[in-house]
Write a structure and sequence with these properties.
By secondary structure, the protein is an alpha/beta fold. 36% of the residues lie in helices and 22% in strands. The longest helix is centred in the first third of the chain and has 16 residues. The structure holds S-adenosylmethionine.
């Protein structure tokens, strides 16, 4: 159910102090991975860490999977958040195993985390035994492989098989001028399968999707906790929701805009509806 609340009524679920206490993984990651080559911005790192901490606080468990690993920069953050009994599944056309192992080792994997490396074109993963084994059991999936619309559509279809009911799917280079076909492929897939995915957040070059029947939880997190969670990680932002949920129920996050941490529509900037 959509909620319409004036901003003044939004009660952040956790105070800034509580968020500060929950940022150990972010600080550890920043220390460890400065030397790893890759494409993973500080903004995206803070956003991932905040969402992964949210999953931990809500006891959301399951496997973590990345398509497009390169030397393991973003995978190292997934490694930091992986818990015993979970799989960290890393898929790449050409696996740089030595560099990836080094990145994961510097992150320090928890005992009992099973690292699975899958080499080859991600479009062939549909027939890999990992799919029935992990059917709807992946809580965090990052699509960052081939940036053609055809490949992104295929990777999203794979995500539709694998993502848990309470998981998050992240797609890289959303709204990138360099890869407009990625944005088109994501939005087209969501339009085709509105019962399966809802785009609840975009920003820092990535799209964040949840299962439609669970998206309200992540939407509430964006409205109530995200700005404080990012500030606790040193990232001052504006979290915006600039239209009615019935038109598009997606938050955006970016650098501070108009001195606001939360920003509603142009015609009602003090009201967040979601
Ligand atoms: C931008 S890099 C990934 C960056 C990485 N996530 C990081 O944190 O630095 C893209 C990766 O996708 C891989 N890739 C490209 N096409 C692919 C495909 N069809 N299937 C699987 N991986 C692919 C490339 O080999 C490359 O390692």
């Amino acid at each position: 159910m959509s909620i319409s609340e004036p901003l003044t009524a939004v009660q952040p679920g956790l105070s800034r102090d509580s968020h500060l206490a929950a940022t150990n993984t972010f600080e550890a990651y920043r220390r460890i991975t400065a030397g790893i080559d890759g494409w993973f911005s500080v903004g995206a790192t803070a956003l991932w860490d905040a969402l992964l901490c949210f999953q931990a606080a809500r006891a959301i468990d399951g496997h973590l999977l990345e398509i497009g690993v390169w030397e393991g920069k973003s995978a190292a953050l997934m490694a930091l958040h992986a818990r015993p009994g979970e799989k960290l599944i890393l898929a790449d056309f050409e696996l740089k195993s030595t560099a990836i192992r080094r990145a994961l080792a510097s992150a320090g994997l928890a005992e009992g985390v099973d690292v699975v490396e899958l080499g080859g074109d991600s479009r062939n993963l549909h027939i890999h035994p990992i799919v029935p084994e992990c059917f709807q059991k992946v809580r965090w999936m990052h699509i960052d492989g081939e940036h053609s619309a055809r490949a992104v559509s295929s990777d999203m279809a794979l995500a539709n098989q694998l993502l848990a009911p309470d998981g998050v799917l992240v797609v890289d280079d959303f709204f990138s001028w360099l890869y407009p076909q990625v944005t088109e492929a994501v939005l087209r897939y969501v339009r085709q399968f509105p019962d399966d995915f809802t785009l609840f957040l975009c920003g820092y070059n990535k799209a964040y999707l949840a299962r439609t029947h669970f998206a309200h939880r992540y939407l509430a997190f964006c409205a109530e906790e995200l700005p404080e969670a990012l500030a606790a990680r040193g990232l001052e932002t504006t979290v915006a929701k600039t239209t009615y949920p019935s038109e598009m129920n997606t938050f955006g996050v970016g650098p501070v805009f108009q001195d606001l941490t939360r920003r509603g529509p142009d015609w009602e900037p003090d009201t967040l509806r979601y």
